[in-house]
Design goal:
heterodimer, A: about 300 residues, alpha/beta, Rossmann fold, 6-stranded mixed beta sheet, 4-stranded antiparallel β-barrel, globular, B: about 425 residues, alpha+beta, Elongation Factor Tu (Ef-tu), domain 3, 3 domains, 23 strands, disordered N terminus
Chain lengths: ~300, ~425
């Protein structure tokens, strides 16, 4: 008998591809939520592999807070062009202009929370029945209880105490009118798996993930990138440092790491040695013990 | 590329489930495995330290690491299956951590469905209790190939060999009722760390391996069915581009056996035979592919195939029937309706079924069969007969966990109400 060894990354890859194909088969109008971060880049890569030689059979959708690193947008547009996938962009600014949400004020103001309204509006507007996201269970403790196929009611809400049991690789995507699903194909991946996979597959990622010089300031123990729309406290000093992003999200709440890692090997070694989670630098999670759970219940990513 | 990265890319994946009640030290054990393998980070530890302090706990409560939901932390209970991850240089581990009390069957069965191994915890002071039996039965029912019985809190019984031996004998006395080939016993103290990662200095009478060593080295290569080629068609890929004008590929995950280019295959339900032309994976053409790879297969002949069909190896055919006998675990507050109609999902196939008969219920605490009480409610396990609207192509669950399993769905609420293992 042939001995076929399938390593952990290939097994995770196979599981994720299976989930993506289930989405294409079970839903009529899915989208892949694309943020420009490494997880969603890996998702696009997996989607290409799942449907090759055909194109990815669903559009990419970006909920744009307007508070981005410039590189993210360039990268997003290039990737969409390369894959031939349709790109849908919806702006948090539009939701603010329509008076549906009010911009946060104060020193830690962020549009992170406001994204939820824009996302739910887009899901309703475009009649999306499944939104694929790059969420991973190892990221945060509320996510550890998340299903691959996560049911949302007509208000987009998540009911963590009443989730459908998910067995073997049988995914129940049945729903009523107006309801939708969030689907997380890379649920079982860890941060390390994602980086090893990027390395193994030689996937192109934005330069922001590698070391670069940037003007930063320190707040609550986290280094934040300076951007035009951020307000500084009196005692906060802007300095130029060698940094890299460990996650890429809204610039107002994404911490950067002091790092000289400039290859994927360096990054993998750095993560192997690190003692803080990648969301440790995310101010949005620090708001309270159950910050993620609360946002998710309301319909966050 | 892959050669250069050998070493840390060549890890195997082991999925295991843990079961135990609130007090037998399960969370402490998981906390220790995560902590000692550096899967817990400083900010996570600080966060649970803060919470423990706020609640006035004496020790840092490692259970807070796995209890992610607000209600769980407030009530000090685990509501739902939580998935945890850690890795050593040898293997990557996925733990399905299932609560021992509320909705125990539902959660245990869910966690067990994908596990290669079950960790069952026994408190050395209490020995084998009802719950141990229940957990072992579910591991057996769900055909988890390996079971490790951790006899925990050995520090509280002065690390005595006879305590361990008695519990081992107690467990082995009901093992014949179970359908598990590989049962191992390890005396540990999760709190003190004996035999978890490092060998215990307090139990020189124990010559076996530590828990982590066992998890890293237990042979899982033969757990999968490598004999019966099974390929449920998930999605048909038709690019309709100039370059791939006539391409018609069948996408799916191999759920059993090995497929090779040139293999003779039979397609269900048409029962037509043909040969495998190519096995494609992105830009690569593979000569062979095996469970659990997701690939795209093209065939020599033009046959009408769609989602829900199955391509199988011609030398080992599945069973084909509309009348199916199965064991079910019921998950819903609404009891099973005799004669009722439900939707089912089996591999990639959707169908409907009618409940024809309830043969018996199993008492999960004694393993006795009850032929009189036919009310199947939440957390009950029963043997039933169903008739399906279309023939299923299947194997017995014992032979193949993926082609032998199905879920039952309530058509009114769309909830998954039961898991079924085909007899």
């Amino acid at each position: 008998m042939d001995k076929i060894i399938i390593n952990h990354l290939r097994e995770l890859e196979s599981e994720s591809i299976h989930v993506m194909r289930e989405v294409a088969a079970q839903f009529e109008n899915p989208v892949l939520l694309f943020s420009g971060g490494k997880d969603s880049i890996v998702m696009v890569h997996l989607a290409r592999k799942a449907f090759h030689p055909a194109r990815i059979p669903f559009p990419l959708m970006h909920i744009d807070t307007g508070h981005n690193f410039d590189e993210t947008i360039e990268f997003r547009d290039r990737l969409a062009k390369e894959t031939g996938a349709e790109l849908i962009v919806r702006y948090v600014q539009d939701t603010i202009d329509q008076g549906k949400v009010v911009e946060e004020t104060g020193i830690n103001a962020s549009r992170n929370l406001l994204q939820t309204t824009t996302l739910l509006d887009s899901i309703e507007e475009l009649k999306i029945d499944a939104a694929l996201g790059g969420g991973r269970r190892d990221e945060e403790k509320a996510r550890a209880k998340e299903r691959f196929f996560s049911h949302r009611d007509e208000f987009g809400q998540w009911d963590p105490k009443n989730q459908r049991p998910e067995l073997w690789s049988l995914y129940n995507g049945r729903k009523k009118m107006g309801e939708h699903f969030r689907v997380f194909p890379i649920s079982n991946w860890t941060e390390m798996d994602v980086w090893q996979y990027i390395y193994m597959e030689n996937i192109d990622i934005p330069d922001l993930y590698f070391t670069h010089k940037r003007k930063v300031f320190k707040r609550d123990g986290t280094w934040l990138a300076l951007a035009p729309f951020m307000k500084l406290k009196d005692n906060e000093e802007v300095v130029e440092m060698d940094v890299r992003c460990r996650t890429i999200g809204d610039i107002t709440c994404t911490g950067v790491t002091l790092s000289k890692a400039n290859t994927l090997e360096d990054i993998i070694a750095e993560i192997a040695a690190t003692r803080v989670t990648e969301r440790g630098g995310r101010a949005d999670d620090k708001r309270s013990e159950a910050a993620m759970e609360d946002r998710k219940k309301e319909g966050y990513f | 590329m892959e050669n250069k990265t050998k070493g840390y890319l060549d890890m195997e994946l082991l999925r295991f489930t843990t079961a135990g009640s609130v007090d037998d030290g399960k969370s402490t054990l998981i906390g220790r495995l995560l902590y000692d393998s550096k899967a817990i980070f400083e900010d996570q530890l600080e966060s649970i330290e803060r919470t423990s302090k706020k609640r006035g706990d004496e020790h840092v409560d490692l259970a807070l690491l796995t209890d992610g939901l607000r209600a769980e932390r407030e009530q000090g209970i685990t509501i739902d299956v939580a998935y945890r991850y850690f890795a050593t240089p040898k293997r990557k581990f996925i733990i399905a951590d299932t609560p021992g009390h509320v909705q125990y069957t539902r959660n245990m069965v869910t966690g067990a469905s994908t596990a290669n191994l079950a960790l069952i915890l026994v408190d050395a002071r209490n020995g084998v209790v009802e719950q141990t039996l229940r957990h072992s039965f579910i591991a057996s029912l769900l055909q988890i190939p390996h079971v490790i019985v951790c006899i925990n809190k050995m520090d509280l019984v002065d690390y005595k060999e006879d305590v361990y031996e008695n519990i081992r004998k107690q467990f082995m006395s009901f093992a014949p009722k179970l359908d598990i080939n590989d049962i191992r016993f390890i005396p540990i103290s999760a709190l003190k760390g004996d035999n978890v990662v490092d060998r215990s200095k307090n139990m020189d009478w124990y010559n076996g391996a530590t828990l982590l060593y066992t998890l890293e080295n237990i042979y899982i290569g033969s757990d999968q069915n490598h004999i019966d080629g099974r390929f449920p068609v998930q999605y048909v890929i038709r690019p309709q581009s100039d370059e791939f004008h006539d391409y018609r590929g069948y996408a799916g995950k191999i759920e059993g056996g090995i497929f090779r280019v040139g293999d003779e295959v039979k397609v269900y339900p048409s029962e037509l035979t043909t040969k495998i032309k190519t096995i494609d994976f992105y830009k690569d053409s593979l000569k062979t592919a095996a469970k659990p790879q997701s690939v795209t297969i093209t065939l020599e002949d033009d046959i009408d195939i769609s989602r829900g069909d199955m391509i199988v190896n011609k030398n080992s055919l599945p069973k084909v029937s509309q009348e199916i006998d199965l064991m079910v675990c019921w998950f819903n507050e609404k009891a099973l309706m005799p004669g009722g109609k439900y939707a089912i999902k089996h591999t990639t196939k959707d169908a409907r079924c009618m409940i024809k008969d309830i043969s018996y219920k199993v008492d999960v605490n004694t393993l006795e069969r009850n032929f009189d009480d036919k009310k199947v409610g939440m957390n009950d396990i029963a043997r039933i007969k169903i008739k399906t609207t279309a023939a299923l192509f299947y194997d017995s669950y014992r032979k193949n966990r993926n082609t032998g399993s199905l879920i039952i769905i309530d058509e009114a609420t769309n909830e998954t109400v039961a898991a079924g293992m085909i007899v």
